[in-house]
Specification:
By secondary structure, the protein is mostly helical. The protein contains ten helices and no strands. Helix 5 runs antiparallel to helix 6.
Length: 207
């Protein structure tokens, strides 16, 4: 009896997995693929406006009744598509450029970054936006995350530099020194290395 129950349980589990798999395939075939195509078409329109410098039109945050959605509309209407996902990133950039920093943070947080460099930029921009709304703690956290994702000669020292400057201006000199030292020792060819050395000299005299 027990063996029969186990066999039945295994059988129904297999049937359940087959049903779930079939439903997923059906949804992907019937719903997601056409949605992906439509979202990609809309993305192309929005990108054209962005490349021309028309940020407000590219974003279309007011969802004006025009013949395209804009990044904000794509992210809202097609959130589960690849085009919808990258539109969240673009929308976050546009919101930041237009001075809507909280909206930029919210949109960037919704964006799922599979690419390491996009992830770096994502956290870096969230940090910048938090600076603008004077949330220094969250800004620092995001700068440190951005610096730590992919170690390289450009973005890593850049975000350590931003973390160092932020600590400096709130007079947390020991923390500031820590990041400046990190840049000086590990990234000697950083673009602002001369500034790093000047700040370190100032901090040494201060401490």
């Amino acid at each position: 009896m027990i063996k029969k129950q186990k066999k039945n349980a295994i059988f129904f589990s297999i049937i359940f997995l087959i049903i779930v798999g079939s439903i997923c395939f059906f949804l992907k075939k019937i719903f997601f693929n056409p949605s992906e195509k439509k979202a990609l078409e809309e993305l192309n329109y929005a990108q054209q406006y962005l490349y021309k410098g028309f940020i407000e039109k590219a974003l279309n945050r007011k969802k004006n009744k025009i013949n395209y959605l804009g990044f904000y509309g794509i992210a809202s209407k097609y959130p589960f598509t690849k085009a919808g996902n990258i539109s969240k990133f673009y929308a976050g950039v546009c919101f930041y450029k237009l001075g809507f920093y909280k909206e930029s943070i919210n949109m960037m947080k919704k964006f799922s970054a599979n690419d390491e460099m996009l992830s770096v930029i994502r956290y870096g921009m969230i940090g910048d936006a938090y600076v603008q709304i004077k949330n220094k703690k969250e800004a620092l956290n995001n700068y440190i995350i951005a610096a730590s994702i992919k170690d390289n000669e450009i973005t890593t020292p850049l975000y350590y530099y931003k973390a160092a400057l932020l600590n400096f201006y709130i007079k947390r000199y020991k923390d500031s020194k820590f990041f400046f030292k990190k840049i000086k020792n590990k990234y000697p060819f950083f673009l602002y290395i001369e500034n790093v050395e000047k700040y370190l000299m100032f901090i040494e005299n201060k401490l």
